[in-house]
Amino acid sequence: MRPRVLLLNPERTILPKLEFLCSIGVSRSDLSVIVSQNPDLLNRSIKRNLIPHYHILKSILVSDEKVIKCLKRLLKSSIVLSQNDFYANISLLRGLGIPQSSISLLVTFNPSTMCLKAFNFAEGVKKVVQIGFDPSKLQFVRALQVLLGIKQKTWEDKIEAFRRWGLSEEEISSIFRKNPFCMGLSEKNIMCSMNFLVCKMGWQPAAVARVPIVLSYGLETRIKPRCSVIRVLLLKGLIKADVPVSSVMITREKYFLGRLKMTCGAY
């Protein structure tokens, strides 16, 4: 707890804020988590900060449930929502024809993105458009969320990680277009997964790049266990050596097991 928070008047300063948050639907359990993670919240003005934040979000999200989800994320951080920047960012997205459902999703689950300065936000939007994302698709706001959440140096390091595997600029851009969250992975995770899939399993880097969602799967929890099964089947000659990475990794668990039973049952 911050020392200055202990000096606040409980009845005149703290209680009104807690009562307001409870009145809009924030549960007591959520409230205790919010305050413990960001005690400076109690030092904010209810009239100049909390109430305006609520009304700004309400004007975009409409649903109280979504407003509360978003507000909880904001209140746990030290981010202060600027009305001018927020509305400018919303206006920019609407001007591109981005559906309200996509905007609501971005605001609800990643409000910090919408709180960026309008200039920085616009630069991020410009890059996402240049990469080739369709504003009418949900992938656009997913890409925007990832791009604006990564420092330029970190972004370049991840691009370089893919280059080390001989992937072209277009292949790397395609990875981001197909699965934006791949660029949210750490450089270490990218390299470890690529090393296993390419060096241990023998798939070509370009083959992995065509199904980048594979890189989002846990190396220890999904990739290695499934590949260990495939290697046994290969050694026994039960499957062909050119099995596609997609059929091994993307298939849901029950279908993967079903195919496995059929393969083993045929011999």
TrEMBL record:
Pfam hit, one: mTERF
Source species: Hevea brasiliensis (Para rubber tree)
Organism phylogeny: Eukaryota, Viridiplantae, Streptophyta, Embryophyta, Tracheophyta
GO biological process: DNA-templated transcription termination
Gene3D superfamilies, per database record: Transcription termination factor 3, mitochondrial
Source superkingdom: Eukaryota
The keyword Nucleus appears for this protein: no
Family (UniProt): Belongs to the mTERF family.
Name assigned to this protein: Uncharacterized protein
Keywords linked to the UniProt accession: Transcription, Transcription regulation, Transcription termination, Transit peptide
SMART domains in the record: Mterf
Gene Ontology MF annotations: nucleic acid binding
